């Protein structure tokens, strides 16, 4: 979508079905992957990392990895590629790692992606938008990350990653702690405690953010019937969905759809500086 000496932005769409590990790949330049839909697993640095719409993943320089798709439907990502010195200045390091992102950052990613798809997008506007998004993401990298799992053993960390896969594969399902615990062969009490220790948030909050992220993608594609994403994403009713959406993003689903479908890039700064 954008290719300048300062920044490159790619809209990466993968339609791969559920699959095992891919062939070994190598990143020749540092980059940030920002999922907008779906879930995948990256095997790198001696561990398996679940990447969903609640996360951002940095691939470090000359980093080897394999990707796995644990669910059908593939995934869609926006990828930022920047010079190492720019990335290091923004994130503090170009080392590969995963962090959690704010819902507003996810909304901003969707907005930037839609706007930069336009063939007429101005190069300076595109660079400004990409760097503004990077600035917003830098806060997530400066805070406690989703990989703060030192207090958990290997089996516990693996259990949390498997929980992430289940939730991200079917965010609209009627999940409860008992069902998750049985699927993971773990008591609900221990699962809830371990999940919070690994992610810094409850399972219910994590699932809410996955559901809202999926809803944002639906709105960005021009969804007219707001009751549809509410029902499909597991909300009790339309008003429940609207209230949770507004409480998270600070705008209504209708306002978000208008902004996303009209590619209102000039609203990007307002999006990423909102309080929620």
Descriptive labels:
single chain, 276 residues, alpha+beta, Jelly Rolls, Arc Repressor Mutant, subunit A, 2 domains, six-stranded antiparallel sheet, four-stranded antiparallel sheet, globular
What does this structure look like?
The chain has helices at 84-91, 103-116, 123-142, 154-169, 177-184, 188-199, 203-220, 227-232, 238-249, 253-261, 268-272; strands at residues 2-3, 8-14, 25-27, 31-38, 40-44, 47-51, 55-59, 63-68, 75-81, 97-100. The chain is of the alpha+beta class and 276 residues long. The chain has two domains: 2-142, Jelly Rolls; 154-272, Homeodomain-like (Arc Repressor Mutant, subunit A). Strand 1 and strand 2 (8-14) form a beta hairpin. The mean pLDDT is 91.
Globally, the shape reads globular
Tally of contiguous helical segments:
11
Q: What number is the mean pLDDT?
A: 91
Order of helices and strands: EEEEEEEEEHEHHHHHHHHHH
What is the CATH-assigned architecture of the largest domain?
Sandwich
Query: What is the CATH class name of the largest domain?
Result: Mainly Beta
Q: What is the β-strand count? A: 10
CATH topology-level name of the largest domain: Jelly Rolls
Largest sheet: 6 strands, antiparallel
Give the proportion of residues in helices.
40-55%
What count of structural domains? 2
- Poorly predicted regions are none
Radius of gyration: 18 Å
Distance between the termini: 29 Å
Task: Summarize the SSE layout with pairings.
Blueprint: E1 2-3, E2 8-14, E3 25-27, E4 31-38, E5 40-44, E6 47-51, E7 55-59, E8 63-68, E9 75-81, H1 84-91, E10 97-100, H2 103-116, H3 123-142, H4 154-169, H5 177-184, H6 188-199, H7 203-220, H8 227-232, H9 238-249, H10 253-261, H11 268-272
Antiparallel strand pairs: 1-2, 2-9, 3-8, 4-7, 4-9, 5-6, 5-8, 7-10
């Amino acid at each position: 979508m954008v290719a300048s000496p300062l920044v490159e932005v790619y809209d990466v769409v993968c339609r791969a079905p559920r699959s095992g590990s891919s062939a070994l790949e190598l990143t020749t330049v540092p980059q940030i992957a920002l999922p907008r839909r779906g879930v995948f697993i990256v095997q790198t640095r001696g561990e398996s990392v679940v990447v969903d719409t609640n996360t951002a993943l940095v691939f470090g320089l000359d980093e080897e990895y394999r990707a796995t798709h644990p669910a059908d439907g593939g995934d869609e990502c926006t990828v930022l590629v920047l010079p190492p010195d720019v990335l290091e200045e923004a994130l503090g390091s170009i080392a590969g790692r995963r962090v959690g992102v704010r819902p507003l950052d996810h909304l901003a990613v969707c907005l930037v992606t839609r706007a930069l798809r336009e063939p007429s997008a101005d190069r300076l506007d595109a660079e400004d938008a990409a760097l503004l998004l990077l600035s917003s993401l830098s806060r997530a990298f400066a805070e406690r990350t989703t990989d703060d799992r030192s207090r958990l053993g290997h089996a516990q960390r693996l259990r949390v990653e498997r929980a992430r896969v289940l939730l991200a594969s079917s965010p609209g399902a009627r999940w409860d702690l008992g069902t998750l615990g049985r699927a993971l062969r773990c008591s609900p009490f221990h699962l809830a405690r371990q999940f919070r220790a690994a992610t810094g948030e409850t399972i219910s909050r994590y699932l809410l953010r996955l559901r809202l992220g999926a809803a944002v993608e639906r709105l960005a594609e021009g969804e007219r019937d707001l009751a549809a994403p509410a029902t499909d994403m597991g909300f009790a009713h339309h008003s429940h969905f609207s209230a949770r959406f507004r409480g998270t993003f600070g705008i209504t689903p209708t306002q978000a759809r208008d902004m996303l479908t009209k590619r209102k890039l000039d609203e990007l700064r307002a999006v990423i500086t909102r309080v929620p």
